[in-house]
Amino acid sequence: MNHPRTQRRPRTDRPPRHLPATPRDLVGIGVGPFNLSLAALAHPLTGLSTAFYEQRARFHWHPGLLIDGARVQVPFLADLVTLADPTSDWSFLNYLRAHDRLYPFYFAERLHLQRTEYDAYCRWVCDNLPALHFGHQVDAVRWNTRHRLFEVDFTRLDADGEAEALGRTHTRHIVLGIGTEPHVPAPLRPLLATPGAPVVHAADYLDHRDTLLAAGHITVVGSGQSGAEIFLDLLRHRPAGREQLHWIGRTEAFAPMEYSKLGLEHFTPDYTRYFHALPEPVRDRLVPAQWQLHKAIDADTLAAIHDELYRRTLDGGWPDTVLTPGVRVRAADRRGSDTIELDLEHTQQGAHTRLATHAVVLATGHRRRPLTPLLDGLAPHLRHDSQGRPRVDERYRLVLDPAITDADCHVHVQNAELHTHGVGTPDLGLAAWRSATILNTVTGKDTYPLPARTAFTTFGLRQQRPQIPSAHQIKELTPLADGI
């Protein structure tokens, strides 16, 4: 993902500010699944000039969590494009066809893909989209008042990640898809600053699994899907009766994800529109209360954990494991070179204890990357809510001052609008719909017709109707020349 960092001096300079490059219609910053969805849906629009910049050398989707057997938690139809355009060349089914795997998939009768399979599918799309530019780090975004366009400064990186050249492009629209970054709660951060027994965030789990398995006692902190998958994987690789595994989390239970059919309608455009129209204080109360919709554990994973634990009781013993929800870590310290001590509090009992362990896995989730310093150049133009967060309109555009929006230029966001659009924000099932919404806005017409209704549930007494572009917004695209 793109975020500025210090580089050695490159061999070339940026073009002078008074000589803008030929402008593009849309520049995407970051190439994760969401901007990859946008790039795939934009690809057949021949009148649209686009470029997508990603500082990584290649696409890889959560590589530290591509555990054998782990599955994506949405059906395969929630690929990059199908729910907006089932005829797209970039559908998962077309990926299977291109690799002669349609019949094996058909007979496997799998609704949910393995994570490794989804990662391979996305990499196949990346390999075939010319608008994607890996090894390009975006450094700054500014508004050019004279030309009434956004300026995007970037650094092209060599194979070692060092600065190779600088560049600048201009665009009418920007789409931020810079993703999330691993989150470590404050009480656990001191462990990362000192050497000793391994402390690994779940995002890097597979890179350190052998080291973790060599430790005596292992503690997994975090009661969401990643914590469950890592606990299960460690359990399967530890000898029966000598597992020495501890799993703790702050939630009141190792709770199953809400997966009823009507419950899943919270991940529809209908609910997204309803949520966006709610008052800000109501939205802020709802998001944490709905944790079981998107931060709990897949029921199959919970069943697999129980099955593995039960299997280890068949000889009459019990596995050497402790699973305790409702626990928070108050403090953490290192004791010698191979021991970590965790100060624990049970939130319901009010009880305290100290746990000695030889390795810790932090399955403590991810947080949205801050839009600053990337958007520092736009700071005077950004509008914020009462909590200082960027305001985002229904069509995924940051609310900017009229000096920019009057020029029909916008900054769109992907997976940065949880506070305005609700629990569907990080869900892969809404990726194609959001991308299509953005492209319809950019083109000013119904490029991808979207359904007016998507749920049986009626959310609220006042129904939120989708916004249809008015006649003066429907305009033909003016083709723009390549700016790179």
Descriptive keywords:
seven-stranded mixed beta sheet, five-stranded parallel beta sheet, 484 residues, globular, alpha/beta, disordered C terminus
Give a quick summary of the entry.
By secondary structure, the chain is an alpha/beta fold. It has 14 helices and 19 strands. Strand 11, helix 7 (225-236) and strand 12 form a beta-alpha-beta unit.
Structure explained in plain terms:
The strands form five sheets. Strands 1, 2, 5, 6, 7, 8 and 19 form a seven-stranded mixed β-sheet that branches. This protein has a five-stranded parallel β-sheet with strand order 10-17-11-12-13, covered by helices on one side. It has helices spanning 33-42, 92-98, 102-108, 115-127, 189-192, 205-213, 225-236, 269-277, 280-289, 291-294, 299-311, 402-405, 418-421, 431-443, and strands spanning 24-29, 50-54, 71-75, 112-114, 132-134, 136-144, 149-157, 163-176, 180-182, 199-201, 218-221, 245-248, 321-324, 327-335, 339-346, 352-357, 359-362, 366-368, 410-413. A hairpin with a 4-residue loop joins strand 6 and strand 7. With 484 residues, it is an alpha/beta fold. It contains 14 helices and 19 strands. It is globular and about 70 Å long.
Helical residue percent band = 10-25%
Structural class: alpha/beta
Total number of strands:
19
Please tell me the overall pLDDT. 92
For the terminal residues, how far apart are their CA atoms?
20 Å
The tally of helices reads: 14
Q: Mind describing the biggest β-sheet?
A: 7 strands, mixed
Percent range for β-strand residues: 15-25%
Low-confidence segments, given as residue ranges, are: 4-19, 468-484
Computed CA radius of gyration, to the nearest angstrom = 24 Å
Principal-axis shape equals: globular
